[in-house]
Amino acid sequence: MNTPVRMVQCKLCGKIFSVLPSFISREKHYAADLIGTVLEGIFLRGVCLQYAQEIVDLTGFPIRSKQTVLNWLEWIGTLHPADLLKRAGATASGYLQEDEGFQKEPNLRTYIVAMVDPNSQVVWHIDYIDHVGEENLYQSFEEFLEKISFKIKGVTKDKWKASTNALKRLFNNLWIGFCHRHCLHNFKKALTAYQKETGISS
């Protein structure tokens, strides 16, 4: 993949800047997986900037300014994962796992929909939506479809009808497999409850 790093000089002040492709972190002193861990803490676990800074301090290469973390947030927050992966030359097998989950926020309940490659665990699509109805999911999947160059052949998912209908409407001849994880989890809970009620031991 050819992604040249170019140098530009400001005509007014004479300062030289490096112009990097948007999918490469500006913070060259930190590995991408470390940046990912910090952002995961902020986005998924709701940690504050101070705590994020302390996470990096544990590596022995402390962040001198919270602005560095804010720069990471700005860098990663502007592009869809499929855009980043496409520019990096990544491809997927065409078989993805899809799921939705709700996210509690102050005075708000939003939903996250995601599509992940089951082999590499690479997130190809993630989106905030207000409702997990068929129309909202269809729009989210449609936006994802416009960003990828590979064909979606199959999706493994739970039995949520709205997402099944949205996928069938958008993708022609799509194979849909239903994940048994939820079913097995519910079965185990029901079996445990039955054992308690009847006094039968395992």
Overview of this structure, please?
By secondary structure, this protein is an alpha/beta fold. It folds into 2 domains: 6-77, no CATH class; 92-184, 2-Layer Sandwich (Nucleotidyltransferase, domain 5), CATH 3.30.420.10. Helices cover 42% and strands 21% of the residues. The chain has 7 helices and 7 strands; from the N terminus they run ββααααβββαβαβα. The protein has helices spanning 32-45, 49-57, 66-77, 81-87, 134-147, 161-170, 181-198; strands at 6-9, 16-19, 95-105, 108-116, 123-129, 154-157, 175-178. The strands form 2 sheets. It has a 5-stranded mixed β-sheet with strand order 5-4-3-6-7. Strands 1-2 form a two-stranded antiparallel sheet. A hairpin with a 6-residue loop joins β4 and β5 (123-129). α1 (32-45) runs antiparallel to α2 (49-57) and α5 (134-147) packs across α6 (161-170). This is Transposase.
Brief descriptors of the model:
Transposase, 7 helices, 202 residues, globular, alpha/beta, Nucleotidyltransferase, domain 5
CATH C-level of the largest domain: Alpha Beta
Question: Percent of residues in helical segments?
Answer: 40-55%
SSE string, helix = H, strand = E? EEHHHHEEEHEHEH
Distance between the termini: 57 Å
List the strand order in the largest sheet: 5-4-3-6-7
Protein name: Transposase
Organism: Candidatus Magnetoglobus multicellularis str. Araruama
